[in-house]
Amino acid sequence: MKLRNLLTGALLVLSMTVFAQSSAVKKMVDMGVNDNPTWEYLSTLTGRFGGRLLGSAAFEDAQKWLIAEFNKLGIEAHLEEAGEVPIGFNRGPWFGRMLASDQTMSLHFVTPSCTSGTLGLVRGHVVIEPQSEQEFQRIKGRVKGAWVLVGGTNAGWPIYLNEKEDSIRDEIKAQNAEIAKENRAYMEKLRAEGKRPDPKDPNIKELKSRPGLFARELLEAGALGFIQSAELPLRALYDRPMMNDMSMTFDKLPTHADIKLESAQYKVIYDKVKSKQNVELEFDIRNHFRLGPIKYYNVVASILGSKHPEQKVIISGHLDSYDAATGAVDCGTGIGAMMGAAYLIAKSGLKPKRTIEFIAFAGEEFGLLGAYAYCKTHQKELGNIVNLFNRDGGPTACTSISVPEAWYDDMVKICEPIKNLWDFEFQVNKQGPRRKVTRAGGTDATVFAMNGVPCVEMRNEDYKGYGFEYQEIWHTENDYLNKSFQDYMEQAAAATAVVVSGIASLDKALPREGVYEK
């Protein structure tokens, strides 16, 4: 009799558990359609804090905001130290225009992060950078108070001023000195023979060029800064060697502006200067540095598992972004979807068997720094991560998932509630073992994959044909909220919440066999 009662009780508890979980998923799905705050999270992150460069006040404020939002949901959240940068950087507004006798033109430009601003509104004439010592000596007297037009087409990086680059410049200048010497000797020989030198003569060698070849000399002569041509959309990266140099201090920081100007406008200015027209440029660039060193942190939040708390299913994105825009797509869409999923899971009342962890990584744009730090700190726990869902691919919808054969049956059941929830059929597909990752790159997920952690991700698609192009926003001035899509973002958060909740609630953890090639 006692045994029967015990079995009846156990079945009752089991049925209640199953009901509770299915009820939670049902509520999750309903909120995903009717009460989905993902867009509000994304709007707040990008509209109130803006671009979140590592070491900026905006990045630190966004971390505090995430902690507060997790706490509102009843999810424990904390900061985990991930490293430090030697100095910080805050970007303010910028403005520039050209003033010529026949034309006034507002200038379309950006500056790389961690480069200097101007001391208010600064006006100066324009010179074209020299390519030889002879040319430099010829214009040296006009360099003070001038903006220098530098050759080449820029891709977002500043003109570096450090020992490595100086060494490269010195080597090129030494080679050019030899080339110039040989050219002079050859032309003198021609003259002695009564021949006229032809500029197209193949025996007259061209000097080697490099953007900013005489950068040091120009700054020492009083140049205001450098202006380089750049294609649209304008990309603004950062001074990587400087931010990797922990000996960097305020007295070593750059003091000149480094401007990347729309190529069509650059050509207008270049042509005017080349034809000896009087041209002046004025800029007001409010780039400001912060005293360092500055520590940076990953934000880590957890819903503790009821049966296997040591096992984790992770949802992640990177909190940092470039700052020429607001980082709304890269990676606001990862953080927004993560926070939307956290809201749906927390409000559903789900009691997962495994821990669901949320991570906002720091320093992805500086070299996956937060992911490396997490894997180092949690090295002994990596074997208990069932899967990492890292979103870092844009504002598109989650339309399918491809899984190892051993996962397939479970994933079909897990995805049933969202199979026909939207105006397409969410697909679960089988996929053979993935190629083993041997080096990190691209996203934070690759650091985990390198350590053997399953990183099976959902496929993201612009299935409605909104015309999203990642290169249009990638590290550019265009990375604003209007490049994202509310319906896709809400769908991604709901799909992530359901799939992760299902994996975290399975009786047995999904196996690692078959995820990667042996």
Provide structural commentary:
With 518 residues, this protein is an alpha/beta fold. It has two domains: 23-86 and 293-504, Zn peptidases (Aminopeptidase, 3-Layer(aba) Sandwich), CATH 3.40.630; 88-287, 3-Layer(bba) Sandwich (Glucose Oxidase, domain 1). The chain has 14 helices and 16 strands. It has helices at residues 2-34, 38-49, 57-72, 133-139, 163-192, 215-220, 240-243, 263-274, 332-348, 369-377, 405-415, 445-450, 470-473, 486-504; strands at residues 76-85, 88-100, 103-106, 109-110, 122-128, 146-154, 225-230, 257-262, 279-290, 294-303, 308-318, 354-361, 385-390, 397-403, 427-430, 458-461. It has an eight-stranded mixed sheet. It has a five-stranded mixed sheet with strand order 1-10-12-11-13. Helix 7 links the parallel strand 7 (225-230) and strand 8 (257-262). Helix 11 (405-415) crosses helix 14. The longest helix is centred in the N-terminal third of the chain and has 33 residues, at 2-34. The chain starts with a helix and ends in a 14-residue tail after the last helix. The relative contact order is 0.17. The model is unreliable at 1-20 (pLDDT under 50).
